Amino acid sequence: MASAEIAAEHERILREIESTDTNCIGPTLRSVYDGQEHGLFMEKLEGRIRNHDREIEKMCNHHFQGFVDSITELLKVRGEAQKLKGQVTETNQKLQNDGKELLTSMNELRQCRVQQRNIATTIDKLTHCLPVLEMYSKLQEQMRAKRYYPALRTLEQLEESCLPQAGSYRFCTIMAENIPRLRTHIRDVSMSDLKDFLESIRKHSDKIGETAMKQAQVQIARDNAVTSQQRSASGRRIRKEGYGSTEVDRTGNNPFSEQDSGILDVDDEQEEEVPGAHDLVDFSPVYRCLHIYTVLHETLEGYRRYFNQIVGFFVVEDHILHTTQGLVNRAYVEELWELALSKTIAALRTHSSYCTDPDLVLDLKNLIVLFADTLQGYGFPVNQLFDMLLEMRDQYGEILLKKWSQSFRQILDQDNYSPIPVVSPEEYQRITGQFPFQDPELDKMPFPKKLPFSEFVPKVYSQLKEFIYACLKYSEDLHLSSTEIDDMIRKSTNLLLTRTLSHCLQYAIKKKNVGLAELVQIIINTTHLEQSCHYLEEFISNITNVPPDTINATKLYGTSTFKDARHAAEEEIYTNLNQKIDQFLQLADYDWTAAQGGGQASDYLSDLIAFLCSTFAVFTHLPGKVAQTACMSACKHLSTSLLQLLLEADVRQVSMGALQQFNVDVKECERFARAGPVPGFQGDTLLLAFIDLRQLLDLFTQWDWSTYLADYGRPTCKYLRVNPHTALALLEKMKDTSRKNNMFAQFRKNERDKQKLIDTVVKQLRNLIASNQA
User: Fold this and answer.
1) How far apart are CA 355 and CA 368, in angstroms?
2) What pLDDT was estimated at residue 469?
3) Which of 59, 112, 390, 664 has CA atoms 20 to 30 A from the CA of 93?
4) What angle do CA 635, 637, 643 make, to 5 degrees?
5) What gap in Å lies between CA 175 and CA 165, rounded to an integer?
């Protein structure tokens, strides 16, 4: 027994030596030498080594011939490898030589491409610059030819269209700087020509008057000659027709004969044609100056000089009236003032109607008020001037509306339609200082945090206040009561809200590429702006000192404006959602003849559900009713579109397998509705959007026609929402139209029975429809 145990232990140690890493063999050998039978172990180890040597020898003998053959083949391959190496080296050298030429060509091509790109860029820049240079050259020629009115038109075209398109080049900057100087030069030259014309008129006025009197004399002589001839002819008719004639008539001595003779003598004289005033005087400076000053915008300095001259004239007249006797009287001065006032008002109405700068209109109004107050101090009536200023108020309001329309458009175009991030209390106070916003819950949140509205809310609110200030500035010093000023400001603000801001909001909502997130933000923004309307009411009341609850006080229409914009954004959300759903449905690719349906929803529908989930997640900040309406509208549209997809004319045949796949997709839609993507729905309300599809598919997949036909028309019918026309249309598609052309299909009993059953149900449905129509 002991020897057997020793032999087994030695065998174990040998196996361990054979299978163990040499680094770990030390403990194994130590166990051998610790024992008493290491001699016996050495004999077994040598025997095991001899066995392994024999196995190695057998293996070597077995593989020796293969090894020799491999060495022989390798020696043969060495020669071929040397040849291949030489060929590769030669090929590489050739490739390197050819590559050098290619690299040279590539570098040349690259240089050509760079030059070509530079040339194209240069041509493009020159294309924009040449019109500027040509226009400026044309302007110089017009200036040299003293064609100042066309030069002004060229200047306007150069400034408004050519220079902005050319870019920021130095010569463009120089030209832009020269434009005001050129305008001033043209204006001064035209005025100088007009003054020379007036001086020339003073020199030639006697000649012009003499010519005019000669023309009048000739015309009178011609008229008298024609009159005398008519009278002579009338006299001859009277002598022929009368019973007798007087002695004067027989002798022909007419009382007018001497006068007629003189006129006829004048008429018979062969005089040269008398030249007219236009032949003696060149009126082109007048027309040129008129056209030039029509094109050039009026400046405040021009109005100031105009008023100063009028005031100076009447101050002198008033001084003479009060310091002298008999030289002028009150009636004369008042007549002059009435004449001057009517002409001044007419001129101001004409020139102010061309003004498009609200600041210039406001400065002009202040200048007119100063003008009126000055003359009123001298006792001249100026009520007509203040009446004209009230008329100009409407024009000023229209100019303000145009300016604020551009401001609103710019604010809406530059807005990112994202909640405003606030990182510090200072920034939070700055924004709440611009816009009256209070939210105790948000105040408790730590920084950084986000305000619910985007940048355009405080900007629009600030612009509304700026508009009110602008209206107030015009109303100052017009001797109006606080109530009248308050009424004027409120009416103008209502126009800004209902016309200008409303149109801008509609433009932002209706423009292309507006996403659902932007529309959601617009709804949130308009909600906050609507809530701020009463602050605007208080703001107007504070600056006009008129309480908001005053009787007959005009109310602001801001609430209705922002409600209309919000409703438009909501409708746009519903429309955009439906359009997105239609885009996903266009990707539907059903195999309407499939033998059996798949076990999971179609890819397009899974993507659609994922899109709806992410979209409705954004609706969390919307009012609950809006989010619920959008969700219900989307589900109804999806259900209707799926039904139309099933019944469309292009789908000629529908198999039961296709209906099963379609049923899986509808179940996915129901799972989405059941999950409650938008909070606020009671129970399975959202599932009702798919009730028509669900009952139709249950009827077909369960083939429960007996129940449908028996209970049709009853309020408790299981398939109450299934229209028989819809069921018939779908059942017609399930007929196997290929059966008539397939001889073998007619011998399959199951197919024949199925088609007979479908034909029977079709017949029953048609009878049902006919009975209901009767």
Assistant:
1) 15
2) 92
3) 112
4) 105
5) 14
> Which residues in 553-581 are b (16+ Cβ under 10 Å) and which e?
beebbbeebbebbbebbbebbbebbbebb
Single-letter amino acid code for the residue at 343: K
Which one is predicted more confidently, 3 or 497? 497
362 secondary structure, DSSP code: H
**Burial profile 17-30: b = 16 or more Cβ within 10 angstroms, e = fewer:** eeeeeeeeeeeeee
Residue 323 one-letter amino acid: T
Listed residue (504, 232, 496) closest to 358, CA to CA: 496
Do residues 569 and 623 make contact, with C-beta atoms less than 8 angstroms apart?
Answer: no
pLDDT recorded at residue 242 = 46
Tokens of 195: 């003054």
* 255: DSSP letter: T
The rounded distance, in Å, linking the Cα atoms of 478 and 117 is 65
- Dihedral over alpha carbons 580, 582, 583, 588 (to 10 degrees): 130
Calculate the alpha carbon distances from 164 to 158, 172, 469 in Å.
9, 9, 33
Instruction: Name, in order, each residue with C-beta under 8 angstroms of 366's C-beta and a sequence gap of 6 or more.
Output: 477
**Per-residue pLDDT reduced to its tens digit, 116-126:** 889 988 888 88
Chain center to CA of 291 = 38
| Confidence check: pLDDT of 302 > 90 | no
Whether the CB-CB separation of 514 and 572 falls below 8 Å is answered with yes
Full-model pTM: 0.61
Residues 602 and 590 sit within 8 Å (Cβ to Cβ): yes
> How many residues belong to the chain?
774
Quote the CA–CA distance of 753 and 742 in Å, as a whole number. 16
The DSSP 8-state label assigned to residue 566 in this structure reads H
Cα 146 → chain centroid? 45
Q: Compute φ and ψ for 449, nearest 5 degrees.
A: -145, 175
List residues bridging with 450 in a β-sheet.
421
- 599 Cβ partners below 8 Å, 6+ apart? 664
Check if the beta carbon of residue 483 is closer than 8 Å to that of residue 546: yes
Cα–Cα distance for residue pair 506/499, rounded to 1 Å: 10
Other Cβ atoms less than 10 A from the Cβ of 245: the count is: 12
Return the amino acid letter for 82: Q
Helix (H, G, I), strand (E, B) or coil at 556: coil
Residue 458 predicted with pLDDT over 90: yes
For CA atoms 58, 60, 61, 66, give the dihedral sign.
positive
Angle, CA 521 vertex, CA 520 and CA 527 arms, to 5°: 95
Q: How many CB atoms lie within 10 A of CB 705?
A: 19
- Encode burial over 248-258: b for 16+ CB neighbours within 10 A, e otherwise: eeeeeeeeeee
